[in-house]
Specification:
single chain, about 300 residues, alpha+beta, Ribosomal Protein S5, domain 2, Alpha-Beta Plaits, 2 domains, seven-stranded mixed beta sheet, 9 helices, binds (3R)-3-hydroxy-3-methyl-5-(phosphonooxy)pentanoic acid
């Protein structure tokens, strides 16, 4: 048997604007993981993907092209030059909440690619893994920017510009993020589609909002490189105000953001597509417990604390 894992992620700043070519920053969240195990299967069974959390078993040979689990297996086998439908059972489990902006789809795909490559005794670069996963992200999200597959495959904080490139950058001082789940699931493609309609109705307004978000990402990168956490917190607040104007916040998000700030967070914002999902708050060792408690009292369905380094 071979096994592999992949982390979750959060977007620190720049979501939505990143779809329109402005920069964004994303960081991996290792406290939640997707796992894939590959076992030899019975003769003639073909390749089965057993997704326990989704209560699904997919026969890769019979599934259609729109099935993301089957498609990542096919693409990987093609890439590594293996048989097309070998007798294998791939079991997938994940602690990453689904539909909450934590990259669960990208992490499941990444874990499958890594486990299958290892099973075939092949090494794949993180770039090759990311490129394969991007193809399947298109099934989940329509027109994804590519930030999720990149941060999950490379497992490093990244500064990302769609179709231009991305960089791993220096974290001057490690910092803590509290990630709090609103408990509300939202479909990224729907939120992205809604923003697209608003943008088309008023391109000047939305372009200027995206420019301001892009400026936040540039300044946030400098603040992280310099270890200037007060500035980073203020920039997260500014990003949240812009996301509200873009129309992707929600009452549940606003409630948790307010609770985090009341608890002493240096800054807080939604993370990912919005209309629910997770919020992130920048905290110190001194404020993390209080912010965690305030978020739970305000109704957070789950709270994770992660260190960015
Ligand atoms: O997959 P999520 O929920 O983290 O959202 C992705 C972030 C967006 O910028 C809204 C979309 C994208 O493709 O980058």
């Amino acid at each position: 048997m071979t096994s592999a894992s992949a982390p979750g992620k959060v977007i620190l700043c720049g979501e939505h604007a990143v779809v329109y070519g402005r920069p964004a920053i994303a960081v991996p969240v290792g406290e939640v993981q997707a796992l894939a195990h590959v076992d030899a299967g019975g003769p003639g069974q073909g390749t089965l993907v057993v997704a326990q959390d989704l209560e699904r078993t997919v026969a890769v040979g019979k599934a259609d092209k729109e099935d993301p689990l089957a498609q990542i297996v096919r693409l990987t086998l093609e890439q590594i030059g293996g048989e097309t439908d070998p007798d294998l059972t791939i079991t997938v489990t994940s602690t990453i909440p689904i539909g909450r902006g934590m990259g669960s789809g990208a992490a499941i795909s990444t874990a499958i690619v890594r486990a299958l490559a290892e099973h075939h005794g092949q090494w794949m670069s993180s770039r090759a893994v990311s490129d394969l996963v991007y193809q399947v992200e298109q099934i989940y999200h329509g027109t994804p920017s590519g930030i999720d597959n990149t941060v999950v495959a490379f497992e490093k904080p990244i500064f990302f510009v769609k179709e231009v490139g991305w960089e791993v950058f220096w974290v001057g001082r490690p910092f803590l993020l509290v990630v709090a789940d609103t408990g509300v699931t939202s479909a990224t493609w729907q939120v992205v589609g809604d923003v697209r309609r608003r943008y088309e109705a008023d391109p000047d307004l939305y372009s200027s909002l995206f420019d301001r978000v892009g400026a936040v990402s540039h300044k946030a990168r400098t603040a992280i490189e310099e270890g200037n956490l007060d500035t980073l917190g203020r920039l997260m607040d500014e990003n949240q105000a812009l996301l509200q104007q873009i129309g992707v916040s929600s009452p549940e998000v606003d409630r948790l953001v307010a609770a985090a700030r009341q608890g002493g967070a240096l800054g807080a914002k939604l993370s990912g597509a919005g209309w629910g999902g997770n919020i992130i708050a920048l905290v110190t060792r001194e404020t993390s417990a209080r912010v965690d408690m305030m978020l739970r009292l305000a109704g957070a369905a789950n709270v994770i604390i992660t260190e960015v380094r």
